[in-house]
Amino acid sequence: MTEKTRLITPRLPRGFEDRTPGEIAAVGAMIDKIKAVYERYGFDPVETPLFEYTETLGKFLPDTDRPNAGVFSLQDDDEQWMSLRYDLTAPLARYFAENFESLPKPYRSYRQGYVFRNEKPGPGRFRQFMQFDADTVGAGGPEADAEMCMMMADVMDALGLAGKYVVRVNNRKVLDGAMEAIGLADDPDRRLVVMRAIDKLDRLGPDGVKLLLGAGRKDESGDFTKGAGLDSKQAEFILGVLFSSVAAEENVNRIGGPEGAQPLRPNASFPINDYISKVGPAFPEGLGELSRMKSLFFAAGYNPDRIKIDPSVVRGLEYYTGPVFEIELTFKVQNEKGQDVVFGSVGGGGRYDGLVSRFRREPVPATGFSIGVSRLANALKLTGNLGATEPSGPVVVLVMDKDQTASYQAMVSELRNAGIRAEMFLGNTKNFGKQVAYADKRNSPIVVIEGSQERDSGILQIKDLIAGKQAASAISDNAEWKAARPGQFEIKREDLVSAVQKLLSEQ
């Protein structure tokens, strides 16, 4: 076979997925419910492009000649690097800074769209996926962060997940104080590795995280991930802060702020060592902010079964500077090994006071969160709350006589002008059965039939495919089915639109 005649194998790239009409409709219904909650809180929509200049996306990217680790990048015609956005937050920071003078402060917006990660794909892990974000830019203080957490809880309730989720809240300043104690205050690269290691706690467990805090970890495929290079005492201290019996949650519950903060007590697996005396001032400051948020949750009626303080939440991106939060679905599902596991996180976010300030000299506080749309849709499917079935197809006008296509097209136009979704069959018209099979495959509710006898008599045959399927299930004999013609009836030609409208309303 020559190169010219060689057929190309149709292949979907790894880490990407196609979406069917049913999936699109289901996600659309879910997004409408999320949008309604966002707008109830006073947020307005804004849209940013898929590409941004690479420098706009910031520190998430490695410093290389071709910044393609973690993102997809290319050079434009004037040799400037552009990258597909990896989230919706960095583009928002650019948009706000660029339109600073004309936007209200605080600026409350929501955004929906695809983001791209040039990472190793796996089960449930895609290189292209949809996010739905909400952010408040220009509001400092934990009150704005608390509102985000409450809105996340309300979104879950609106989607029918009440009692099946918890919003987990922590503060990066607590971990910042702990990392200062072990000497990482001025080592941003290793700090980021530490945070990303802790962010994998729900997936790898404490032993896996301890490996990533140390020299590194080899996964089941044999791939090795380099660790943060902490020694054993440093790693145990970080894990001790996370797992101590008097970590952030108990401190906040007991004392309501940093003034009476109790020292962390030892934990059997990860004891708090001498580093506790070296924690920086960010540590009690973070606890104080958590305390204020907790009082707001309590005042608004959000109990710990919906929103709770959890010291293991850190989030993986470097730009967070204060409170961080995640929505975790608490019901169990089976993983690819058949094991029962908690479904886990479907979204999260936090405060990022330094991101907009990359574009402007004055400090600009900001906070927000992002929902993973595809992952959340999968969760709703598992719980029976996805809320949309395969969308109904168009009414199909069958072509019984090829030389009468103008007449059939006139019927289609009448239906469309009445606001009814309709089409004329455009395939091979020689086989009546294949035309009906096509309508079935299109999930069509109705087909319209006009042969020469019907045309001469001024009538049409209307076939109710939904009723036909239901009736056919009770008929076992093919001849009996043909004789009964279930779901089929006769109308006058001039009654086409009204008859179809009536039948659709009944269906």
Automatic annotation (TrEMBL):
It catalyses: tRNA(His) + L-histidine + ATP = L-histidyl-tRNA(His) + AMP + diphosphate + H(+). It comes from the Bacteria. It is found in: Cytoplasm. Keywords: Aminoacyl-tRNA synthetase, ATP-binding, Cytoplasm, Ligase, Nucleotide-binding, Protein biosynthesis. Transmembrane segments: none annotated. L-histidine binds at D87, L88, T89, R117, Q131, D135, R315, Y319, Y320. SUPFAM superfamilies: Class II aaRS ABD-related, Class II aaRS and biotin synthetases. One of its GO terms (cellular component) is cytoplasm. Its EC number is 6.1.1.21. Pfam families: HGTP_anticodon, tRNA-synt_His. The keyword tRNA processing does not apply. Residues 39-391 form the Aminoacyl-transfer RNA synthetases class-II family profile domain. GO terms for biological process: histidyl-tRNA aminoacylation. InterPro entries: aa-tRNA-synth_II, aa-tRNA-synth_II/BPL/LPL, Anticodon-bd, Anticodon-bd_dom_sf, His-tRNA-ligase, HisRS-like_core, HisRS/HisZ. Its main location: cytoplasm. PANTHER family: HISTIDINE--TRNA LIGASE, HISTIDYL-TRNA SYNTHETASE. NCBIfam families: hisS. Homodimer. This is Histidine--tRNA ligase.
